[in-house]
Amino acid sequence: MWRDGFIAADWGTTNRRAYLLDASGKCVDEFEDGKGILSVPSGGFEEAVGDIRARLGDKPLLLAGMIGSNRGWVEAPYVPCPAGIEELARGLAWPGKREAIVPGVSLNRDGRADVMRGEEVQLVGAIAAELIDPTALVCHPGTHNKWALVRHRQIETFRTVMTGELFNLLKEHSILSDLLRGKVEVGETFCRGVRDGLDSAEVTAELFTVRARVLLGKAESSDAASYTSGLLIGTDVRIGLSEPLAAQVVVMGRPELTSLYAAAIREAKREAIELDGERCFLAGIGKLAEMI
Amino acid sequence: MWRDGFIAADWGTTNRRAYLLDASGKCVDEFEDGKGILSVPSGGFEEAVGDIRARLGDKPLLLAGMIGSNRGWVEAPYVPCPAGIEELARGLAWPGKREAIVPGVSLNRDGRADVMRGEEVQLVGAIAAELIDPTALVCHPGTHNKWALVRHRQIETFRTVMTGELFNLLKEHSILSDLLRGKVEVGETFCRGVRDGLDSAEVTAELFTVRARVLLGKAESSDAASYTSGLLIGTDVRIGLSEPLAAQVVVMGRPELTSLYAAAIREAKREAIELDGERCFLAGIGKLAEMI
């Protein structure tokens, strides 16, 4: 138990966000920078951790995210699901006496394989803070969207869909790049894309029609980004909701993404509760720190 | 009619291939280089055409491919399908008296939109040379795979699947890049990927399992390229064969790609005839030249 407060950090591949929590668990200072794990040279993590203490104070550190991967500081091996906060606390890796890293969660049964690293803290945080029902289907959009089934206050199973990364690849490097520069907005075009994604199992073909429709004068190029985002997210929601389930549906993460997914889930005739991912992260990391 | 022979070129986005055909229609010289249309500066096409004549002789030119697009030399507007060789001949664009460009083909009906530019010459060539039945389903793999339904010696309808481009994006720029450096080979791993693509409508999720299986020790990283290629091609074949059809199935194009698709089509319990795309191109462009 760290009685005098601690520093929590969500340390990803390209960014990190660090928070100073006081003895009562309240966040009193924070910063974000571009020092993701890929920017830290081999052997440079002590120094990169020193940066955080220089900015937020000489406190114990509880780290989550890709910092615990095999490309990070010290590997915190995946905890197999079903996993709840107790399993995460038992799986902490300790690079030093005052630094701990939260493990990721893996799925490895019934011929299925999946991994998450970072999202698990938000999930157990929402469970611990009772922001979601004890049984819920949680969608966590990001580069790699996660659909997690929470049951008995644990992550029972989950599935990753590469929606965010595919959209970025198409936007940055594909024949659709010119067309995808526009802003993605929830509206009729986005929802049409969602419906096409919900209805069609042929997304790798539907994507090319984005370009063909513009070339043939059937669509405005300014609509292409919203349509394509809708198509990919609709496909994602079709996958995520494919098993009929009476559970509450929750979308957790950055608000600009949760709003897109919540709109897509509405097109699929379900209602989703939106939760701010940062709030869930702080709830989860605070609870984990109490268990140390 | 060009009685003393002519030069044919398949001029794409990143490459061009030019052939000298003699008075009898036989190919007597050829070359390929990297002067695709994107490497030619605005106003530079006369000079780029001059290059070809400097290498193959001062003959009339019949050009096909992206050279006729709105980023090419002179736009040859799409001919709507159904389209056969007569429609292509009527749609030739003439940048000069001795230079003609073959138009692409578009689909714009029943709410569907699609375009092709370059593949149509191979298709009408295979029809004219009677390499395929008058009714056939033709798969033309490449960056953007085309499934064309040929009926009454015309391209009746077609559909594009972005398989090749998606595989390249994943290989060059994605989280799977490290895993996809290996060679793609037809074998048990490739065929397992194909079966997963044929069975699953969830390719945007299946892709992430490639990484998860390696991380969890369930698959060898050296198998990832063949599996992923199989998964995308299996998805593609599922789309292409989705309408039950008694027609002959043909795979036309570069042999290293047609062999992958032919193997995938066999996994789907159909037999496919493989045709060399260059042979079909020469048959089509020769026939078009006779019609000038």
UniProtKB/TrEMBL annotation, chains A, B:
It holds the Pfam family DGOK. InterPro entries: DGOK, DGOK_C, DGOK_N. This is 2-dehydro-3-deoxygalactonokinase. It comes from Sphingomonas hankyongi.
